[in-house]
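Review session, final week

We close the course with one last complete record, chosen because it touches almost every idea we covered. It is MOB kinase activator 2, a protein from Myotis lucifugus with 235 residues. Go through it on your own first, then we will talk.
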Amino acid sequence: APSLGRKSKAKPNGKKPAAEEKKVYLEPEYAKSRITDCEFRELVVLPREIDLNEWLASNTTTFFHHVNLQYSTISEFCTGEACQTMAVCNTQYYWYDERGKKVKCTAPQYVDFVMSSVQKLVTDEDVFPTKYGREFPSSFESLVKKICRYLFHVLAHIYSSHFKETLALELHGHLNTLYIHFILFAREFNLLDPKETAVMDDLTEVLCSGGGHGGGSTDGASGGGAGAQNHVKER
Ligand SMILES: [Zn+2]
């Protein structure tokens, strides 16, 4: 079983940056793990008769809750000491306060900023109206994009810095499933800038490419139409 230890495999020249380290989450054994065989490509499509903004609001709120929950499972390991910056592979994120001023912060602080600002938005009746007859603001789409960008940062941080812990908790199937659903949803409605997500392109390729339920390239041996069997194999 995977351990919580942080074994850093130093490369021979000792100069390789963190991103060059082996990305455990790309290993087929873990990447193929899912909690459902659901066809996310169909699930994310706007259903007939449902208002686009309602669909975006409802899904964004749900993703926020799931990302928050997934992060909470590893939050005890995401400390100011272990994660001194909000790093994802070689990329470092900074928080910008209301005045647009760059704030230097640790990863847990950054995630805290993300979660409280998103919480504020999704519970703001002027931004995410729930009452009948209330209209969405003109800034709605850009706010949804902003939320998605933040949620992506948190998901990417869990993969790049806390995958071993997620693995030890046997929650990688949940993480993969959430990531696939989130990425395909964002793709369907152009909510994430490809430049933003480039940092995790290798993972996205492994998880979201191919047909079926997004595991096409990783479980080629099992063939199509064998959903039930795939499921058993993953256990
Ligand atoms: Zn962390």
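Two points worth writing down before the exam:
DSSP finds nine helices and four strands in the chain.
Residues 78, 83, 107, 157, 161-162 surround zinc ion (CB under 6 Å).
Good luck, everyone.
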